[in-house]
């Protein structure tokens, strides 16, 4: 029984991680891929210039708008999302 519960917990964790990664992957970081996708789907590209690890307003915009389900649902049908990130503490 303990092994079944542990397996269930691991399964839920994997599911939650995959949902989180799916939302994160909505933002492309390769402009040529974003451009191709926009042309194929006939959609506009929204570009988010971000300093993801240092810009207060970038973090706030992501937390309050860009990572929210209503925005992601709208964007999936109406926009191609491209993020141009300029972090300070991590190397791209």
Summarize the structure.
The chain is an alpha/beta fold.
Question: Can you offer a commentary on this structure?
Answer:
It contains 4 helices and 3 strands. A 3-stranded parallel sheet has the order 1-3-2, sandwiched between helices. The radius of gyration is 17 Å and the shape is globular. The chain is α/β, with parallel strands linked by helices and 92 residues long.
Summarize the helices and strands and which ones pair or pack.
Blueprint: H1 2-24, E1 27-28, H2 31-41, E2 45-50, H3 56-66, H4 69-78, E3 80-85
Parallel strand pairs: 1-3, 2-3
Q: What does the overall shape look like?
A: globular
Strand order of the largest sheet: 1-3-2
Radius of gyration: 17 Å
Mean pLDDT: 82
Elements, N to C (H/E): HEHEHHE
Number of helices: 4
What tags apply to this protein structure?
alpha/beta; 4 helices; 15% strand; three-stranded parallel β-sheet; 92 residues; single chain
């Amino acid at each position: 029984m303990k092994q079944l519960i542990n397996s269930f917990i691991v399964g839920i964790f994997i599911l939650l991680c995959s949902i989180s990664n799916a939302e994160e992957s909505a933002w492309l970081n390769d402009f040529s891929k974003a451009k191709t996708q926009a042309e194929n789907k006939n959609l506009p590209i929204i570009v988010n210039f971000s300093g993801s690890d240092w810009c207060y307003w970038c973090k706030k915009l992501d937390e309050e708008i860009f990572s929210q389900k209503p925005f992601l649902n709208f964007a999936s049908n109406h926009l191609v999302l491209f993020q141009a990130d300029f972090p300070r503490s991590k190397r791209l």
